Amino acid sequence: MIIDFAFIYADGNGHLEQIITKTASLLTKRGHHVRVFQSYRPEDTQWESTLPEIHYYGEKSGLEYENPDSLIEGYTNSLRHHGKPDVIVAVRAPLMNYVCRTAVAQLYGPLPRIYSWLQGAPEEYGYEEALKFSDRHLVMNEQLEEAVQRYSFQDQWLHLIGEPIIQGKPAVIPRPEDKVHFFFVGELILFDNYFEQVFTTFRSIQDNVGLTIIGDGPDKAAIQQLAQQIGVEEIIVWKDSAADFWSLLESATALILNGSYPESNQMKIEALARGVVPINLGSHGSMPTLEDVPAIAEGKYELPTPEACQAMVQPYYIESVIDQLETALKEESSAEIPMQAIHDPQYLYYKVLNDILACAIEGTELVVQSEEEVDYLASFFTQRYISEEFKPVDADVTRQVAYPKVESVDYHYKRASVRLLLIQMWKEQNRSEKIYCRLELINKAGTWKIDQLHREAPFRTEEQSVSTTGRKKLVMVARNSSGSNTYALAKHIPESIHDTFDVELLQQQETQEFQEKVKAAEVLVITEANIKHNKKLYNPNQLIIDTWHGFPLKAMGFQDKNEQSKHVLADRWGSINYVCSYSEFFSNLMIRCFKLNPEHIQLTGAPRNDLMLQRPDMHFLREEFDIDPSESRMIFFMPTYRQVAHNDRADTNLNRDNLFGMESFDNDQFYDFLERENLELIVKLHPAEEKLFLNHFEMQTRVHLLTDEMLTRYGMDLYEIMPLADMLITDYSSIYFDYLLLDKPIIFSPVDLQSYQQNRGFILDSYTNWTPGPKVTTQEALQDALSTFLENPSWYSAERKQIRDQVHHYQDSKSSERVWQFIQEKISSYTQPV
User: Which helix (H) or strand (E) holds 228?
Assistant: First the structure.
């Protein structure tokens, strides 16, 4: 049997590490393959050599940079490389049960059983609820058994295997023949009058006893003085603490314990293993207490024999514990634990949720029209479903899924349920059907499959109404000043809107005031599905319109390979009533990316493009950069982001040691080229990445860094100066789709195309086909392309027109007008009595 002991981290120095070493050795001798996994190498690297096999799964710079998701990622990858075990023992931290369960749920083949093995109360480690992710629990004593039961499921198996304290068979410490001898071991600290009680007890019997005190501590001198005051200093032998204090004792009758010490239980067991009787300060079962010491000294108290003492701790011998452990790990059971749904979102690992959603979406949208095609179903459906419920589709039907959401996942990742809206369209009959469905999925050997598909209720458009009395509130939210549709709308508000609404443009914030204004608005206009409230709870009649923020080139939402929030997309988009669209092509892409209801998309054009098609602002560049656009030619460099300042997302590891992330880039040569050609380069980073690289580049006379803060300070938007750009350089930013409306040259610099394609991907079929301009990845190619466009701006003109006509249904400056007209129409219909 392959047995894995999985830690988050052990430093190699403690008692637990010694236990794992001995456990691994004994299990290996019994024919098992034992492996130890933890995130990083131990502080005491000698521990490695005592183990049969150890692997490290951490993938960051150190343990302090890890979080539950990254631990799962690393452990999953490590198991893919080294192979799955038969059983996993999640050692010490409850969180490790969640890490192990989530990792193995993503791997193909039978799932190994997972056992928790705590060395302390769950509350000591945190993440107590994570114990529910294990199949069974190994507990060392009755106290831990009670503690684990508080957080585990009622029907989960608990194996009381004992506490592996005693290694080998320690020699019995003989009892003295002449007089009774007691000893104390521990840190010497004055508290709770403990030593005063001990010394007072010994004062009346000091002619018949001896007392050895082994230990050090800040109050040692005070305790020695206390012994002198009480008059027992003559019977006490003081010894300094030692790692193996047992070797300091030639003989001993009993060990006086201090129950306040964390090590007292272990010390009691080690004493019994050596035939020494432990004495507690207060009542403790069948063992003598401090009150019994005089009777022991006078021979009136019958102590258990050394053999009886050793028999009491038989369960604590490591060989005995390993016997119990091995029996527990081998034990098979057909008893099924009831599937309990995970309620705490911190335990919903995004990759598992993404796998569930992918199966639900692809399986539901699959159209099989004949028995010969049934094999395709096996990738998404269980054999039970195929044999009992599947019916071929005999008509020309297409299926789309909208608003898919994982409703529940059980703690063992064996079952999940998904709700979604199924849209079926019959082209020849020109009709459609929308119905809400609930799917039940099963994890079959690491692969999620649909086992049941319940059609629950037909879709009905929700009737809404906006109050017809009083002034109404219309709130628009802007995320930044880099092409904001809501900013553009705010500049083109018609009088009829002002007559009806109190209109306010807000910058996205995390303040209570901002949230209250957003929730209270009758009409809310946003740009990035950037809503965090559930309007059904706060304002169910709120009309929410999303103008979005650009035509997509990059994969987004359900198409984005690196998206961690697919499980919340249904909640966000389900609250949005309408989405503004560039074109039918754009609408289809948004449906693919975010699984929207097609009826909720309105063709208007992007309001921000109105700003680009109007007279540009000349004042800003003169004031901020001392540039006269009429005297120099302007190049805008606007790359997309790879990293995000507020989370761990990284689409590629592009090294921006120079502006363009190119290898062997000569900055001085490039600056000379700009000077020679009379070019001004305006660098505008993506708002998501701006904070990371704000101070990274050294600006020169003809290179200028444009920031969101500058634009906000002037109360303007990037698109108001975009017409001044004679050329645009970008990589994967969707801004070039809008720039096509100006029919000016575009240069593409996909320096990390392969990595970006692999990690995130594109929603369009071919980067090359959809980028109408030269692709440059070296400094020489970049400067050649710039020179060519300076001589011939019409280069790639035909390609630009072809893409522009596919992307933009409207190519005028009236998109804001169309959006406002649409809002007025909807408000008019909403204010009718319901």
Answer: helix 220-230
Question: What's the per-residue H, E or C state across 342-388?
Answer: CCCHHHCCHHHHHHHHHHHHHHHHCCCCCHHHHHHHCCCECHHHHHH
pLDDT digits 0-9 by tens, 630-668? 899 999 999 987 654 444 555 566 666 778 888 888 989
Q: Is the pLDDT of residue 672 over 80?
A: yes
CA atoms within a 13 Å half-sphere pointing along the CA-CB vector of 403: 22
Nearest of 593, 493, 559 to residue 820 by alpha carbon:
493
Cα→Cα distances 729→157, 632, 634, 639, 659, Å: 63, 17, 11, 8, 11
Question: In which residue are the tokens 């004992």 written?
Answer: 162
| pLDDT 10s digits, 685-716 | 876 666 655 655 666 789 999 998 999 999 99
The string of DSSP letters for 696-725 reads: TS---TTEEEE-HHHHHHTT--GGGTGGG-
Nearest to 821 by CA among 602, 610, 612: 602
DSSP 510-561: -SHHHHHHHHH-SEEEESSS---S-HHHH-TT-EEEE--SS---B--GGG-T
Q: What is the DSSP string of 57-107?
A: ---SSSGGG--HHHHHHHHHHHHHHH---SEEEEES-THHHHHHHHHHTTS
Q: What is the distance between the alpha carbons of residues 609 and 582, in angstroms, rounded to a whole number? A: 10
Question: Which tokens hold the place of 769?
Answer: 């086909």
Give the DSSP per-residue string, 727-743: EEEESS-THHHHHGGGT
The number of beta carbons lying within 10 Å of the beta carbon of residue 575 is 19
- Strand, helix or coil for residue 400: strand
Taking the C-alpha atoms of residue 516 and residue 538, their distance in angstroms, rounded to an integer, is 10
Cα-Cα-Cα-Cα torsion 151, 156, 160, 161, nearest 10 degrees, comes to -110
**8 Å CB contact between 209 and 180:** yes
SS3 string, 155-214, reads CCEEEECCCCCECCCCCCCCCCCCCEEEEEECCCCCCCCHHHHHHHHHHCCCCCEEEEEE
Give the pLDDT confidence of 206-243 residue by residue, as tens digits.
888 899 998 899 999 999 999 999 999 999 999 998 87
Q: What amino acid occupies position 195?
A: F
Residues in the chain: 834
Residue 126 above 70 pLDDT? Answer: yes
**Beta carbons within 8 Å of 496's beta carbon, 6+ residues apart:** 824
Question: Is a pLDDT exceeding 90 seen at residue 806?
Answer: yes
Q: How confident is the model at residue 832 (pLDDT cuts 50, 70, 90)?
A: very low
The letter for the amino acid at 30 is: R
CA distance 717 to 739: 15
| Least confident piece of the model among 87-91, 551-555, 673-677 | 551-555
Please give the residue that has the higher pLDDT: either 819 or 765.
819
- Residue 45 near residue 11 (C-beta atoms within 8 A): no
Task: Give the percent of the chain with pLDDT over 70.
Answer: 92
Q: Are 7 and 78 in contact (CB under 8 A)?
A: no
The per-residue pLDDT for range 435-457, each reduced to its tens digit, is 999 999 999 888 999 999 999 98
Average pLDDT over every residue of 90-99: 96
Q: Choose among 394, 402, 455: nearest CA to 428.
A: 394
Supply the mean pLDDT for the chain: 89
Return the closest-CA partner of residue 344 out of 173, 95, 548.
95
Question: H or E segment at 684?
Answer: strand 679-684
Place of tokens 């295997």: 161
Q: Burial-class residue 739 by CB neighbours within 10 Å (0-12, 13-18, 19+).
A: buried
Residue 347, C-beta contacts closer than 8 angstroms, at least 6 positions apart: 98, 129, 130, 133
Strands 431-444, 447-458: pairing kind: antiparallel
- How far CA 717 is from CA of 366, 489, 616, 626, in Å, comes to 44, 12, 11, 19
